[in-house]
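Schema walkthrough. Field components (list of strings):
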Amino acid sequence: MPDGDWTIPQLAVTVDLAVLTIRSDQLQIMLVERGIPPFQGTLALPGGFLASTSEDIDAAATRELTEETGLRAEHLHLEQLRTYGAPDRDPRQRVITVCYLAFAPDLPSPTAGGDARAATWMPVDKALHKRTTIAFDHKQIITDALERARNKIEYTTLAATFCEPEFTVSDLRKVYEIIWAQPIDPRNFHRKVTGVPGFLIPTGDRTIRHGGRPATLYRKGPATLLHPPILRAAPHGR
Amino acid sequence: MPDGDWTIPQLAVTVDLAVLTIRSDQLQIMLVERGIPPFQGTLALPGGFLASTSEDIDAAATRELTEETGLRAEHLHLEQLRTYGAPDRDPRQRVITVCYLAFAPDLPSPTAGGDARAATWMPVDKALHKRTTIAFDHKQIITDALERARNKIEYTTLAATFCEPEFTVSDLRKVYEIIWAQPIDPRNFHRKVTGVPGFLIPTGDRTIRHGGRPATLYRKGPATLLHPPILRAAPHGR
DNA sequence: CCAAAAGTGTTCACCGTACACCCATGT
DNA sequence: ACATGGGTGTACGGTGAACACTTTTGG
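Field assembly_structure (string):
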């Protein structure tokens, strides 16, 4: 950090959220419809300006997230994704956005938090489709969020954050299959994840199913890293 | 991004650099001595305020980096590390710092770029030592930079960015050994890295050594990802 | 000849993959 | 009985770790 005591005028900082969840067997992202220009009526990532001069940016992201989802922070994963600062990304003024990535289980209702704005879910595929219009550079942000999510579940236990508090190995496998868009052998996956110490804690209960053997229910354990990682078939991301 | 058209007053955005290099068989980080309070006389990461309202933050980082190192951007690696926005991280005013991580080969002179400020190198170990004082929250940033670097060379070819344009397999291995602070078997390492397609391009020349068989010289090839990654012995970083 | 560093060959243990097979439930 | 999904056993192939060994230089 340099010496000097001046600020660029007309410089604003916002915190935006890329909230991912799995709904209807699809990876979906939370979007809000913009009420004013620019991009009036189009969809954008939820977010907002810093609430006060003394608010930490991480805290601002947490606040936004719990407001939008209505969930408690412990049931979510939140991490900083990247900061976007192209000079023309907002036509009104210079806006720098610190963007956060969040993983959430499927939520009872999109706007359970009581927020006035209409938050909706859209499949990530559809949001990234050529013909879909997303405000600002948010389509790029969604692309980055997807890539980060795909990489992250390889070597962490965060995939479980997409599941309900109690979930089966199948539920967890579905998360991987949906995010990676590739099938996974159920038998080997089962052995793999149950073999990681501290990842899955059996609750003692079992599912009541419509057919088939009942599955053991698990809770997420304290482990955060997977060793060795669950590697995808194809070379990482390129 | 939300609706609204106002800015927090007294909010400044800076771009800081965590530049890593290998000098004297140690991982070192570039620091500058602060000329004015706060933290006058103590060391801090190089960086600065955005040069103009229309400057992209990535471009600002590149500019700072080439100014400080005197090297052309092609010989360096630069990526965004993280944004730090704790409200009290600068006692003067609210400052949000977008921090970048850079890898550089050993440089001819620390301030070859002709910059007036005195840039120095300090071993990362020493910078992170309990008794070393570093300005602002920059010690935390250095910690994050080190962790990122350690992870990054696992699955990318970026370790070669620490080497001269032409280097041997031994040179590259030393980079890994120094950054990971752990010995690596020279034979297996050799086979591993020479086996990655597009990683190492032989120049045809060999080293002239003070003893021992001359080593083949390589240039960095177009490959960017390592598949499979070079995994460290111990569980990743925890 | 010896030391030192580069580079190759070989062995072995482990692990991911593939898949046969058994288990426990609903219909 | 049969379908459906949960979960275990096992054989095979690839790869990383360990290390003996050869190659090529300087002293």
